[in-house]
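Forum > Structural Biology > Help requests

Title: Can anyone predict the 3D structure of Gfo/Idh/MocA family protein?

Hi all, first post here. I have the sequence for Gfo/Idh/MocA family protein but no way to get a structure on my laptop. I'd be grateful if someone could post the structure tokens.
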Amino acid sequence: MGIIGTGFMGRVHARSARLAGAVIVGVAGSRPDRSQGPYSSADELIESGAIDLVHICTPNHLHAPLALKAIAAGVAVICEKPLATDGETAALMAARADEAGLVATVPFVYRFHAMVREARQRVARGDVGRVTLIHGSYLQDWLLRPEDDNWRVDPELGGPSRTFADIGSHWCDLAEFVTGERIRAVSAQTGVVQRERAGHAPVLTEDVVTVQFRTAHGALGSVTTSQVSPGRKNRLFLEVAGTEQSLAFDQEQPEKLWVGGREGSTALVRDPGTLTAEAMPYSPLPPGHAQGYHECFEAFVADSYAALRGEHRDGLPTFDDGARAARVCDAVLASAASGRWVEC
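Reply #1:
Sure, ran it for you. Structure tokens for Gfo/Idh/MocA family protein below:
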């Protein structure tokens, strides 16, 4: 394997790759002094002939050119999200990967919580009845203050959307994955809370987003995303209501799945002895030993590598899923700009 990008996500990918048994033959950074191994650039690494798969963990504007170069070289890809900074390019990337017959995945890793798999199976077997309402949020505070800054704020590096592309994409993917519903149309608002940041004035990418939506089968929904909500760190919350039951998952309390009914509710706690067969593979630890983000990432990378070996893994997020998220993001921006409902 090779890794492009030496920031936080590069380190997360490297850890999961090693745990999955990969040999990392090179790491390419933004400068030669940040690279490790015999390859001084991303191009050298991709074209070396020494790797089966490359992890792309760079700023967003580099995802498409690097992934397309890897696909052209016959190299499988794990690419960070957003897959591209616009839906058309993301769709092209997915099409190229499909044409080449290459494994190409996107780390929508919240799919890999055992209790998310449990929720998905319960919806699929009809426990909630007909899905009528999907709602939730993804809230952070790491860009709360004007002195808080990051390359994602710059649309030249991060793309035209920041908050929704970065974390709204996770929420929408999770909502569609759990429910099997597809968001059909959106009505969105975006807001910039900090209009000036260190190095960026004016700020052109959004801090907060609210979205109403409807699905292809008529369910209604809403989601709020924010990177400026004080005290919220990575609070991804999803609730699904149906004609029989409701289910709720909070990423900051991933050991539990709330199950609600007219006669009462309960908190189902992760226990390999009581989970459905579909959730079991993603619950490797005994009950009482909390699982979290690292375990999700490890499971995602392990499943991607299994696909590289020709094995099937249910629920593995591919470039098609990344292109889907980019299309929804485009619709959100178009709706916010026009004040109209936009189909996606």
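The chain has a mean pLDDT of 97. The longest helix spans residues 319-338.
Shout if anything looks off.
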